[in-house]
């Protein structure tokens, strides 16, 4: 039998850091408002690098750290809601940039659940026995879809990328998963609505910028996502206290507090880095995972059980429990 395992992690963020105080210079907001409601203190904002540039940096770092060549890769999946273009895909650009000539590549669009959905898909590609090695990357330049005149959303998001190398192995590392979508609630978080535009039809639903019903998303996260995490643990061979770390989408520290309470888990087991990056959508979980490895919390030696949970636009939410 074939199984898949995460064998390397990496992340990258643009150099420019924008603090809450910097934002207060250009809009009617304050560090106190932003940090008390969200935990966010700063975010990285890209000056000249595109989503595929950020993803390429992660891909090159993954190759370097793992000592494999780009030619060894069978596939590249990039989870993103801020591609450089719909065609070619961001993943195709990364494939060209790193010279992964044997790899097929495509983007996966599931907003802040994108990395978890992509990792689940990649695990199936490998455990089917058809493929041996692939990159799964979450990469976003949300700064280009944020409405910078809307303080209610502009302060929440940032740019960055993170990813993993997934490889074939002979023992089971993916222990349980649940993935969900509720399109009937999709209007509460939207971006880049594309109306019809032709000599024959013009529709009104053209809206480039990200829109959000903050309260609805907050309630969704603490109700549906917390329940889904509980259900995934129940479907796994583990008890909640056997999970070493819960790496959750980094939207808001208050959401993490509420989920911790619902799960009966100490916040020490739910690390956060939204204070440094803001919400980077599909990139937030792999950036956090990579930082946890850098800090020695997560070891990549097969000794730990990690829960990954993403939630966001769609609405979508998904949880994976892996040995890492
Ligand atoms: N600075 C100062 N004041 C602000 C700002 C700001 N940046 N943004 C909004 N306000 C004001 C509003 O205008 C409003 O003023 P009013 O009472 O005079 O009308 C007041 O603050 C309260 O606004 P609310 O939107 O009701 O603020 P709330 O307490 O709900 O907090 C927040 C907003 C932080 C977005 C919250 O709803 C939340 O955390 N939602 C979760 C959604 C989330 O994190 N989304 C991230 C993307 S989605 C995802 O990743 C899943």
Automatic annotation (TrEMBL):
Protein name: Beta-ketoacyl-[acyl-carrier-protein] synthase III
Subunit structure: Homodimer.
Keyword hit for Cell inner membrane: no
Residues the record marks as active site: 112, 249, 279
UniProt note: domains: The last Arg residue of the ACP-binding site is essential for the weak association between ACP/AcpP and FabH.
Domain Beta-ketoacyl-[acyl-carrier-protein] synthase III C-terminal: 234-323
NCBIfam families: fabH, PRK09352.1
Pfam families: ACP_syn_III, ACP_syn_III_C
GO molecular function, one term: beta-ketoacyl-acyl-carrier-protein synthase III activity
EC number(s) stated in the UniProt entry for this protein: 2.3.1.180
GO annotations of cellular component type: cytoplasm
UniProt similarity note: Belongs to the thiolase-like superfamily. FabH family.
Keywords from the named record: Acyltransferase, Cytoplasm, Fatty acid biosynthesis, Fatty acid metabolism, Lipid biosynthesis, Lipid metabolism, Multifunctional enzyme, Transferase
Record carries keyword Metal-binding: no
Function of the protein: Catalyzes the condensation reaction of fatty acid synthesis by the addition to an acyl acceptor of two carbons from malonyl-ACP. Catalyzes the first condensation reaction which initiates fatty acid synthesis and may therefore play a role in governing the total rate of fatty acid production. Possesses both acetoacetyl-ACP synthase and acetyl transacylase activities. Its substrate specificity determines the biosynthesis of branched-chain and/or straight-chain of fatty acids.
PANTHER family assigned to the protein according to its UniProt record, in alphabetical order: 3-OXOACYL-[ACYL-CARRIER-PROTEIN] SYNTHASE, BETA-KETOACYL-[ACYL-CARRIER-PROTEIN] SYNTHASE III, CHLOROPLASTIC
Pathway participation: Lipid metabolism; fatty acid biosynthesis
Organism of this sequence: Streptococcus gordonii
Main location: cytoplasm
An annotated GO BP: fatty acid biosynthetic process
Catalysed reactions, as listed in the record: 2-methylpropanoyl-CoA + malonyl-[ACP] + H(+) = 4-methyl-3-oxopentanoyl-[ACP] + CO2 + CoA; malonyl-[ACP] + acetyl-CoA + H(+) = 3-oxobutanoyl-[ACP] + CO2 + CoA; (2S)-2-methylbutanoyl-CoA + malonyl-[ACP] + H(+) = (4S)-4-methyl-3-oxohexanoyl-[ACP] + CO2 + CoA; 3-methylbutanoyl-CoA + malonyl-[ACP] + H(+) = 5-methyl-3-oxohexanoyl-[ACP] + CO2 + CoA
Localization (cell): Cytoplasm
Entry-linked InterPro entries: ACP_syn_III_C, ACP_syn_III_N, FabH, Thiolase-like
Source species taxonomy: Bacteria, Bacillati, Bacillota, Bacilli, Lactobacillales
């Amino acid at each position: 039998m074939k199984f898949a395992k995460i064998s390397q992690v990496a992340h990258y963020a643009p150099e420019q850091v924008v603090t809450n105080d910097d934002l207060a210079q250009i809009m009617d907001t304050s560090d106190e408002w932003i940090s008390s409601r969200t935990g966010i203190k700063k975010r990285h904002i890209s000056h000249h690098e595109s989503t595929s540039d950020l993803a390429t940096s992660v891909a090159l770092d993954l190759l370097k750290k793992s000592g494999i060549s780009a030619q060894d890769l069978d596939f590249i999946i990039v989870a993103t809601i801020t591609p450089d273009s719909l065609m070619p895909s961001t993943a195709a650009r990364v494939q060209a940039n790193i010279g992964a000539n044997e790899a097929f590549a495509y983007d996966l669009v599931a907003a802040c659940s994108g990395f978890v959905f992509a990792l689940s898909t990649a695990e199936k590609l490998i455990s089917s026995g058809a493929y041996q090695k692939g990159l799964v990357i979450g990469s976003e330049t949300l700064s280009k879809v944020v409405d910078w005149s809307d303080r209610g959303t502009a302060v929440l998001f940032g740019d960055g990328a993170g990813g993993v190398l997934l490889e074939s192995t002979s023992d089971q590392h993916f222990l349980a998963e649940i993935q969900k979508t509720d399109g009937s609630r999709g209007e509460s978080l939207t971006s880049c609505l594309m109306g019809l535009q032709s000599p024959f039809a013009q529709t009104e639903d053209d809206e480039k910028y990200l829109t959000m019903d903050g309260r609805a998303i907050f309630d969704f996260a603490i109700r549906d996502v917390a329940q889904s995490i509980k259900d995934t643990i129940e479907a796994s061979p583990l008890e909640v206290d056997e999970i070493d770390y819960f790496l959750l989408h980094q939207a808001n520290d208050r959401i993490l507090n509420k989920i911790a309470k619902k799960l009966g888990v100490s916040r020490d087991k739910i690390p956060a880095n939204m204070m440094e990056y803001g919400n980077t959508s599909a990139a937030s979980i792999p950036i956090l995972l990579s930082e946890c490895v850098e800090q020695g919390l997560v070891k990549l030696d097969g000794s730990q059980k990690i829960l990954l949970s993403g939630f966001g636009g769609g609405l979508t939410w998904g949880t994976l429990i892996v040995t890492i």
